[in-house]
Amino acid sequence: MGASSSMEQPVSAEQRELENIAASTGALPLLQKSFSNLSDPQTNAISVQTLQQCFHLCYEDPVCESQQKPESFPRLLDHLGSSIVDLFFLSEKGGINWLGFLGGYVKCCGRMSTSMSLNILLRIFAMAVKKLGLSSNLEFEPDDADCKINGSLLPSDLLLLLWMCWAMLWNVRTLKSSERKGNLLLPDINHLVLSAVVACAEVDSSFDLWNCDIVGLDVQLPVGKFLNWAITTAPTLSDCLTQYVNRRLQISVLAEDEEGSSESISGDMSPNASQALLLTRGRAWAISLAPRSTITEEILKLCFSADIVGTDENLLYRFVISPLMSSTHGKGLNRFWSNVEGYHGPLLVLISANSEDAYQDNNKARKWIIGALTQQGFENKDTFYGSLGNLYAISPIFHVFSPSGACGRGQGTCIEDVRIHSLPGLCNQVSVGPFSFSVDDLVNIINHKILTGKEKNYVYSHLHPTGRVYESHPKPVGIAFGGTTTNERIFIDEDFAKLTVRHHAMDKTYQPGSLIPNQGFLPVEASISEVEVWGLGGKTAKEVQDSYKKREELFTEQRRKVDLKTFATWDDSPEKMMMDMMGDPNRVQREDR
């Protein structure tokens, strides 16, 4: 055993260093227990076959939400476990000893920069592809300690890579420890793949984002540009590997009849189960891949729930214009407000709209989806408010617009001004006082701390004033995100009929970029077809809102009733007052002082 052997014989400096690194991640007790269960007592080592079986992942017939499904994907997963072991866990004659077990875990799951962890993920993917007998354009320098990588990816390769990450997370969060197999649902993630294609490849303006065959698209994505895209758009993508390895080791420790914290999914596994909503599993996962925040766990719960359609406690408001489906909560700002009022927590707003393409002869309307994330509930104000938030281009292409930097050019660009560079494949450490940061972590800290936006116009939500007060310059009635008053970057009118999207030059709060495909400088007005608002504050925020609604209903009911017993005499009753006014309204009455 790793724990007992380290006490029986002198501990080497290498073993002490590896144990300290593993302890810094919090995984040392788990590693000691799993090594004790998996190792042979006679050799005090784990056989390669045993460890490969521990990390083995198998789904025979996955259910796919998308029509584009590479047939080689289930066989690719069969080689995941062996690829992890062969790349990182060094084996001797008797198997993998405690030192090799520790070193392998630290290599693939230790603390490291985002670019380094993405490189490790690509190495595992390339190894699995090689074992499958398929060709890959990725090349690694075997003698380089920093795992430098060259080559490119095809869009079909990226689709397999993202699905491999999803499958690991699905296994972690849905499979019981007593089960060896389960069902796998693959989400539609074309919007993520197209985001990388547009960012990494040279595509012209005629590229059709709506009718694109991802599997058959012959476009090379240089790995360096892909890493930059992943660090900006999906920096937590590689977390799936650490979670998967830890979960598999936990299962090796648990007894056969003991269940872990995950729950097996038994809901509707049909491909169209979640497609009726704007927030599909694939879109929710894309949002969760942004930098870690308080809403990440709530988003992941939606991704891996048995039935997204049935999560009524999270879906606060929904409005749909469709001949086959009626609106759930009603149309307009008033109906919207009655459903979101009192919710004090993060909110995700999704809007689906369509605008006719003036350059198309058939004038075909194409739908697109954008979104906004707020860190607090909505308030009825005639000015902008809020603290942080994000804007999203969700479909047909995904992109995140965080609060902008002072230079207004986006995340990572201004870092060059302070001479700090984040190079793919490097795991450099930067010391600041008593602390040590990786280059990627320091880049994120500097972007968050000193590159704050020039403005803080995160959210605007204004209803009609209750009193009839004359206003020479009335404020717009509706919901907005970014920009300024009357020049909002996103504006929804009070009837929820028209959506206006303006150029990012009008907005100094969020990062620049196009929210919709082929967006020009002029404002784009589109017809709204669907609106969804999801509460991401957990059970506490929902319970607080429910209490608020019950209290408001009670007050409303009390205001409707007039208790005559509260009036002492006939002279104080409302009936007497009304009769006096009807009889002689001009009669002079004595005023009591």
TrEMBL record:
It comes from the Eukaryota. Residues 292-537 form the TLDc domain. It holds the Pfam family TLD. PANTHER family: NUCLEOLAR PROTEIN 7/ESTROGEN RECEPTOR COACTIVATOR-RELATED, TLD-DOMAIN CONTAINING NUCLEOLAR PROTEIN. This is TLD-domain containing nucleolar protein isoform 1.
